[in-house]
Design brief:
Elements lengths: L1 H20 L11 H27 L26 H16 L7 H36 L6 H4 L3
């Protein structure tokens, strides 16, 4: 329930507020169909990554992606074997998809806000919390798996 509220805030409420405050035109206009199709593809990839990584947290971690009901075990399988923050990547993909689909300059703030939130707030808290809860296991995982770019994209470690 809480996770749906957080996702709804990022993907519905924040874009609606930005569009409402757009001085140019608060109306929702879609871009040309090839760009909308590309946006729908990016949205689908982001949604699949969010669902896959969330399912791994629930199944393997015996918790949820929601910070108020965290995992009880460190999850290092599935998308977490390639990157430490697949849910953050999914958020950036989803907000970027909205920019591709809806023709509004103000929506370019969505992925920017997502990255700022993830780097300035979520990242330091996550590192502190994971070290507190999982200790050396997290440090070993952290040294082995990059935060943002999967190993194949990040190059040799």
């Amino acid at each position: 329930m809480g996770l749906a509220a957080v996702g709804g805030a990022w993907l519905i409420l924040l874009p609606a507020a930005l569009l409402h405050c757009d001085p140019a035109d608060p109306a929702i206009r879609l871009r040309a169909w090839p760009i909308v199709a590309a946006g729908a593809t990016v949205f689908g990839l982001g949604a699949m990554l969010a669902l896959w990584s969330g399912a791994r947290l629930i199944r393997d971690g015996e918790g949820t992606p929601f910070p108020l009901d965290p995992t009880r075990r460190l999850v290092t399988a599935g998308p977490y074997s390639a990157v430490r923050n697949p849910q953050g990547i999914a958020l950036v993909l989803l907000t970027s998809a909205e920019v591709l689909i809806v023709d509004s300059a103000v929506l370019w703030l969505l992925p920017l806000f997502a990255v700022l939130f993830l780097v300035a707030l979520a990242e330091p808290f996550e590192d502190w919390e994971m070290r507190r809860r999982f200790g050396n296991s997290y440090d070993t995982y952290r040294a082995r798996v990059p935060r943002w770019l999967p190993k194949r994209l990040a190059g040799p470690a």
